[in-house]
Amino acid sequence: MRLSERGRTIQASPIRKFKPYADQAMAQGIKVYFLNIGDPDIPTPRVVAEAFHAYEDEVLNYGPAQGFLELREAIADYFRSYNIDLKADNVIITVGGSEAIFFAFCVVADPGDEIIIPEPFYTNYNGFASYAALKIIPLTLRAEDGYHLPPAREIEKLITPRTRAIVLCSPNNPTGTVYSREELEEVIFLARKHDLFLIGDEVYKEFVYDGLSHVSLLEFDEAKDRVIVADSISKRFSCCGARIGAVMTRNEEVYQALLRFAQARLCPPTVEQRAALAAYRLGRSYFEPIRREYQKRRDILYEGLIQIPGVILHKPQGAFYVNVKLPIDDGDKFVFWLLTEFRMNGETVMVAPGSGFYATPGKGKDEVRLAYVLKEKHLRRALELFRVALENYPGRRH
Amino acid sequence: MRLSERGRTIQASPIRKFKPYADQAMAQGIKVYFLNIGDPDIPTPRVVAEAFHAYEDEVLNYGPAQGFLELREAIADYFRSYNIDLKADNVIITVGGSEAIFFAFCVVADPGDEIIIPEPFYTNYNGFASYAALKIIPLTLRAEDGYHLPPAREIEKLITPRTRAIVLCSPNNPTGTVYSREELEEVIFLARKHDLFLIGDEVYKEFVYDGLSHVSLLEFDEAKDRVIVADSISKRFSCCGARIGAVMTRNEEVYQALLRFAQARLCPPTVEQRAALAAYRLGRSYFEPIRREYQKRRDILYEGLIQIPGVILHKPQGAFYVNVKLPIDDGDKFVFWLLTEFRMNGETVMVAPGSGFYATPGKGKDEVRLAYVLKEKHLRRALELFRVALENYPGRRH
User: Fold this and answer.
1) pLDDT digits (tens, 9 = 90+) for B185-196
2) Which helix (H) or strand (E) holds A261?
3) Does residue B398 carry a pLDDT above 80?
4) What SS3 state is found at A299?
5) How many CB pairs under 8 A join A and B?
6) Exposed, middle or buried, A128 (CB in 10 Å: 0-12/13-18/19+)?
7) Contact assignment for A131 to B63 by CB distance below 8 Å
8) What is the DSSP code string of A154-189?
9) Which candidate from B48, B241, B265 shows the least CB-CB separation from A63?
């Protein structure tokens, strides 16, 4: 049987494809430190469990396609607390940020259309591009520039008659870069000039360090009609397994189209929406100690990594990832070796190989992404394992 | 801003698009009987609530992309109890049956490819075809034939070089028809002859009446490599709001492709998978009284409807829908009128207009779908309202 082209070519997740080897290692009694996936270890707020405990419906019914009004209102309130002018009717609840991105892709582009994404980028965009049969045009960024955006004229070279949108993820996964207001203004200028949509992936909004603050695409009134933003509670409230996100726009026609996409899949999970509502009601102050904890971890990881000879990285300003260049032959081989061969006192460490975060063939082969989602003690141990592993890796380049 | 073509053309759900008018009627104090949507009123098994109550994880983490092994095993066991040879490694847990269908569409077909679906069909296939940019080729069935399939040579006329799959929903939504083993064998013969995939939507598997039993596409060893089946707990356990389904195949290459599609969106909801596991552990006997209840409702609705002059229908053998032809100008107008004008003792009834269940333009305009998801007393009242409404509808044809 011949599968579809996308069925044959859709990327295996570089974050997850090595999981079976990690499972094997654990089955052998090896302790694995997981720096490969952004699944936070910060306790989920207790109100989430309480929302599950309060479930007493006689029937677990469908909810509205766009999500429950109370939750959409709570999200709009939350964004208004950041001086973003948003109403419940600008918000559709989605099944995680994943679905938000996918719906946004579908609404702006048809098969074969192009969307420009700075690379390295969140690897699952590749999957959503396969879902929607779009073409990702990578805008290659450089570690030396801290993965900041190049001038508008550089981005403009990538625009063709088929370009439909530019995707900006800030704070960025996997680089940790936070785009400045000026950078965003340059891109907005381009989007207006070429009549493009702007898709913002802002799920790490609160994860900004060193006193910086996140600038949302939703703050720009001049781009109001062309901005679609994906959001999620996964990282904000350590709720990855709840699968609650949101897609937001102030363009009414886009909203109605997103709503029809939402109707086709009926609704997001009912009980998790109540849990999300309870989490939003905690207010913004809930997040401050968590931000401080992540900043501390960022510092530990960064300070540790820059002391390892041959490791090239920039200091991330946000999210909870760092993308590093290593003196190695191939990130995939390195990760495979970590899981199947490298052991130190019965322990090893897992990271995500970098090539999957690039669309340009060959790029990122000597890079890996590390997520700082472990407590200080474990993070320090994982770092030590990583250092020793890198020294002893047979594919190390000298 | 120019939206994508699919953004502009994706169908508004005929099941849900009139919901705002129903909400308005209810806000005016009108009681609305909902026969428009297949959201069962049968109590969800208590073990589902108990699974929510037992949630005590410190962090609500991601689960595996393919779903938890225990649940996949429970589902395989369940199907084996129907003499279907299925293993946990043939099952991927999805976000509802919706995602199962969408992933199946993506794996078999690329944009512009064709899939043949007997019409009337579950309207949301239109939405998934927009997601995946496929072309649905309708095979028009007739009420007079009880919406059974025509001979293979009739279906064959629709096959072109771009045909990639045939979708069979049995027990059928919206017709209630249950395909016989012989009907399925004819289609399998065609699929083998033209090397097509077969996608089975079998989410109403247990809902078969009059002593009939459901035949699954998974039962045919000769089609083992070409069959992909979508399943869901939504109807089986009255768990529509849980968003737990499954996609199943014994073709290993197809399985691996489905898994990569699943990886891109990370995982299905974590806690609901535990709830689903608890429900599956109830065993098949759980469903028997529910089947009897639905059969009773089917009889009430059918007996009531055939007595209304001008109503044409066949007796459904499964699922919980009946598709009826009415002496009306336009199903959309009829539903709008039911919600905004028709009232009897402060009550009205809502149904789903038929045209959305057809891909052929103009078809189904004088049809509506009714779901028998109400308790006997309410169903009888809804039927009475429907009868009187139809008599008094200004767009009635004489």
Assistant:
1) 999 999 999 999
2) helix A252-264
3) no
4) helix
5) 263
6) buried
7) no
8) HHHTT--TTEEEEEEESS-TTT-----HHHHHHHHH
9) B241
In single-letter form, the type of residue at position B12 comes to A
**Predicted confidence (pLDDT) at residue B56 exceeds the cutoff of 80:** yes
Strand ranges in B267-364 using DSSP code E only, listed in sequence order: 321-325, 347-350, 352-353
CATH code for residues B5-43+287-390: 3.90.1150.10
What are the strands, taking DSSP E only, across B84-217?
91-94, 114-119, 135-140, 163-169, 197-201
pTM for the whole thing? 0.96
- C-alpha R_g of chain B: 21
Assigned token pair, A65: 């396609």
Q: Which two tokens stand for residue B137?
A: 């080729």
Q: How far apart are the first and last CA of chain B?
A: 46
User: Over 90: is that where the pLDDT of B17 sits?
Assistant: no
Per-residue pLDDT band at B13 (split at 50, 70, 90): confident
How far is it, in rounded angstroms, from Cα B212 to Cα A35? 53
Domain boundaries, chain A: 5-43+287-392, 46-282
Q: Does domain A5-43+287-392 have CATH number 3.90.1150.10?
A: yes
Structure tokens that stand for B157 in this block:
């006329």
Chain B residues closer than 8 Å to A264 by CB: 10-11, 13, 98, 124, 126-128, 130-131
CATH topology of domain A46-282: Aspartate Aminotransferase; domain 2 (3.40.640)
Judge contact between B253 and B235, C-beta under 8 A: no
